[in-house]
Structures are given as C-alpha cells and as structure tokens.
C-alpha cells in the first residue's frame, strides 16, 4: 500500500511540474491565433495576400504576436513602437542568427562574418573587414584590377558580338565581379569559344 501511495505521489509531482513548466513557458510567449499540430498557424494566412492576413491577425492579437509557421515558432512585430523596442532597444539580443545543424555545416561552425553570433569575435571580424578590405586605401589599391577586369569584359563582349554569338551577360558579369573581389581571374573560357565549338 505504501509503495502505491509513494508511486502516486511521485507521478502527481512529476505531472504538476510538467504542467507548471508549460504554463510558465506559455505565459512568456506573446498571444497568437490557434494552430494545428503539423501546419501550425498557416491556415490563417490562406486566402488573402500575406500582408493583409497579418494585418487582420495583428488587429486581433496585438502588435506582437506568435505564429507557428509549420513547427517553427515565429514572433511577428507589426507596430513602429514594437519594432523600435525589438530592433533598437533590444538590438544585441536579436542581432544573432538562429543556429541550426545545416547552418553550422555551411558556415564552418559560424566562424565567418555573416553567420558569426553577435559578440566579441564578430566585432573583431567586422573591424578587420572594415580596416583591411573596405578602407579607402584598399579600394584605391584595387582600382587597377577592377579596370583590368572591366576591360577584359568589354573585349570579351566585343569578340562575342563580332562572331554573332549571344552574350551570356549574367555569367560574364558574375565572373568579372568574382575576379575583381578575389584578385584573380575566374574565367571559364570565353563565350565566343563555346559558341564556335557549338557551331563549328
């Protein structure tokens, strides 16, 4: 009999702890519309254009509301005052990106400037980037390389046009930008050579 009452008390205490935790967690979240297990709040965004659906929801639930886009909880800010609070007053809290397994793989453990979490490491990376890469002295130093790459682009377009081939402007511009940024040529072979192989 004692074993049953002890087990019952332990179960009751565990259940009370779980319920209390859920209530506290729910109390900290902003209000939002009802949601379904897999699709979340997406049904509320069907029909009207998304900006109008969000406007209607914000009128009902307030300027700060919680939507679940699928299983992802998303806080929507829809007033200037709330946006100021989030983006200016509490900027350091919201400055970092959400980290996931895929982002860790792509960004080598969030070591780059773009994906690094806000903090001392990010500030040092930004300082190095501004001083060493984006300074006026560095931009002036790169002028010859930019001029050289643009000249090559113009020559390539002229040669392609003379051969009556179509110019692959997107890839040519991308190669020129990449070559200028990386201080070397990424050239994949001229478009005219590709055209002559195709038609020759």
List keywords for this structure.
mainly alpha; disordered C terminus; 200 residues; 3 domains; 6% strand; two-stranded antiparallel ribbon
Q: What coarse outline follows from CA principal-axis ratios?
A: elongated
Q: Which range does the strand content fall in? A: 5-15%
Q: How many distinct domains?
A: 3
Poorly predicted ranges = 186-200
**What characterizes the major β-sheet?**
2 strands, antiparallel
Strand order of the largest sheet: 1-2
User: What gyration radius follows from the Cα positions, in whole Å?
Assistant: 28 Å
Q: Give the overall average pLDDT.
A: 78
SSE topology string:
HHEEHHHHHHHH
Question: Which secondary structure elements does this structure contain, and how are they paired or packed?
Answer:
Elements: H1 2-28, H2 50-61, E1 64-69, E2 72-77, H3 80-89, H4 91-94, H5 101-106, H6 120-133, H7 136-141, H8 143-162, H9 169-182, H10 191-199
Antiparallel strand pairs: 1-2
């Amino acid at each position: 009999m004692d074993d049953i009452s002890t087990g019952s008390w332990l179960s009751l205490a565990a259940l009370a702890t779980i319920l209390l935790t859920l209530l506290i967690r729910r109390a900290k979240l902003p209000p939002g519309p009802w949601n379904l297990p897999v699709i979340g709040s997406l049904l509320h965004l069907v029909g009207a254009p998304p900006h109008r659906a969000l406007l209607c929801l914000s009128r009902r639930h307030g300027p700060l509301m919680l939507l679940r886009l699928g299983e992802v909880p998303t806080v929507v800010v829809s007033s200037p005052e709330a946006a100021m609070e989030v983006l200016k007053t509490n900027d350091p809290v919201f400055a970092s990106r959400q980290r996931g397994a895929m982002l860790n793989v792509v960004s080598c453990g969030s070591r780059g400037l773009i994906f690094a979490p806000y903090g001392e490491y990010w500030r040092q990376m930004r300082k190095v980037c501004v001083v060493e890469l984006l300074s006026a002295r560095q931009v002036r130093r790169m002028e010859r390389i930019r001029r050289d790459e643009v000249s090559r682009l113009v020559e390539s377009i002229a040669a392609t046009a003379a051969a009556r081939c179509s110019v692959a402007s997107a890839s040519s511009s991308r190669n020129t930008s990449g070559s200028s940024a990386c201080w070397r040529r990424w050239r994949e072979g001229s478009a005219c050579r590709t055209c002559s192989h195709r038609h020759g």
